[in-house]
Amino acid sequence: MVVLQQVSGVLNENSPSSTFSFELVDMDPAQPLYQPVKPHWFYCRRIESKDLWLPFSREDSERLEQACTTSGNEEVMVAVEGERYDVRVLERQRYAVYWDQRPSEVRRCTWFYKGDKDTRYVPYPEEFSNSLEEAYMIAVTLDEWKRKLEFPSGETVILHNPKLFMQYQPITLQDEWVSSPSEQTRPRTVKRSVDNITAEIPDGEPEKIDHLVFMVHGIGPACDIRFRSIIQCVNDFRSASLSLLGSHYRRGQEEGRVGRVEFLPVDWHSALHGDATGVDQDIQRITLPSISRLRHFTNDTLLDLFFYNSPTYCQTIVDTVASEVNRLHSLFKQRHPEFTGAVSVVGHSLGSLILFDLLTNQKIGSGETEMDECLHPNLHPVSPQALCDDTDLAALGLPLGPRKKILNFIQKRQRPLLRGQSSTSAVDYEYFDVGIGQVSINYPQLAFHPQAFFAFGSPIGMFLTVRGLKRIDPNYSFPTCKNFYNIYHPFDPVAYRIEPMIVSEVDLEPMLIPHHKGRKRMHLELKESLTRMSTDLKNNVLGSFRTAWQSLVRMPAPSLPQTEEGETSAERCISPESTCVGEPPESTGSAEEEEGHQVQVGMLNGGRRIDYVLQEAPIESFNEYLFAIQSHLCYWESEDTALLLLKEIYDKLGVAFEQPPQ
């Protein structure tokens, strides 16, 4: 029960709380008539044992409010946040659609409070807000203020005037260490309506989805320097892409040709380290008790690399990734039956290697017969176990010796991807796939053909080399994916290049990814300017020397023969453009542009360049070792990376890229 009474006067000037200054407000001489408050819906996110209340977009909030007012006593499900979450309106709970996540509380919010130590306003519970709104309505209607509301929990709220409301906590709820009276009576600021607080209400997402991207994480449960999960990192990447679409594809949005790109996370770490495998318990039994935190970090992250090279756990990992991608794809199609766009995949760190192996072992079609596979193994670069194994040959009555010879022959014929493998390494063909050097497992098939594969901070090149593979056939491409981009930060200690394994005879610089603001970073421009100034200075010195020499050779010197255009041989030899002085002519275009447009780098990316390097930030250039780990985890928040993906996606849709004015 809420007790409402009118306060006879203002607070005592001698009270401790009088030391706090309240905000000054401009009072209108004529009091407005009462207008019902407009609710806005919030949801609660648990971050580091603290509850953080975040607002839905205005579009989602309006849909929730409409469902709340029209559903009556029947439960209604409302899709929010790009249909990645469902809200059960009566239950006031928000559920994730595509991944496992604890349900979060949802509130219909009208009144908010903030203490001195709070960084943002917190919504009151709905029942508490309804009591405040009722008291506010009476005060406005009767034009009677300085009303005090006492709640059963001990809180007291005073409505001083139409703009100033304060809440006072009961002394019994104060912390025991608080001793001074001023701290005990410190009030909270109270606000009515979300329009009167500094809440960052997100923009709504376009309903039209142009492209779907699945993102596979690397080692460990954390994906960035802040130890966030793959879900949170993909959320940031999605937000960055939405912002870039608004700035770099504005005209396409206005014309209705650009909607948005949906990014969905793929989690395989939980399945590997879950109860089903029991691997964590097995590892824990043999882990030493010293330096426990470091050993726990090693067991939870670095061991994933060893698990992937184990036949047993590698099978678990690839099965989990493929089944999760197929599950997400099927669920997405169910929720978006109108979707007709293409699908791409992204892999970070070890996740890129997993996708590389999966895409290498995809079948072109599903109608091939087993006889066709045995006669044409090069058409389908899959594990030998997918063709015919020892059990099939034993069923034909073949002895053990001939069976092994046949299996070894099939494995030796499976070399569709790479050339120049080391002939000195002893490989047990009973357990290894010669085609890609990977442990012999059954690779599952994806339910779709990806349009493109983007690798972030990828060790693919290193793993292929360690497997004994020296060169990628320039004619090779993934059976079901025609585009491949190897994206990396220049200081990433885990990233390796791909192009030198295809074009080893040419020293190619990677393609520089443009800054999303349409220029190179300032320190890189300065570096190029200094290099250009040095070149110009050298040319000026040579030019001055040439002028002085010409003044000498123009003197009567019949011993110097003339050239076709009247220039002496000495003039030709001393000219800066001549090779006589050992200086080659300067190129009119940059090496990057020439290589980008003229060099063919195999068919992994349809003849286009594969290696793309980000520009380091100015502070990173001071000490590359200091930022090495951060460089491996920077891709999730990199706007330059997100823009590269968007450009490749929308170029194929025929939508022009627009560089916004600076």
UniProtKB/TrEMBL annotation:
Chain intervals for the UniProt region annotation (Disordered): 558-596
Residue ranges of coiled coil: none
InterPro entries: DDHD_dom, PA-PLA1, SAM/pointed_sf, WWE_dom, WWE_SEC23-DDH2
Sequence ranges assigned to domain WWE in this UniProt record: 26-108
One annotated GO molecular function: triacylglycerol lipase activity
Domain DDHD: residue ranges: 446-651
GO cellular component: COPII-coated ER to Golgi transport vesicle
Family affiliation: Belongs to the PA-PLA1 family.
Cross-referenced PANTHER family: PA-PL1 PHOSPHOLIPASE FAMILY, PHOSPHOLIPASE DDHD2
Protein name from the UniProt record: DDHD domain containing 2
Provenance organism: Esox lucius (Northern pike)
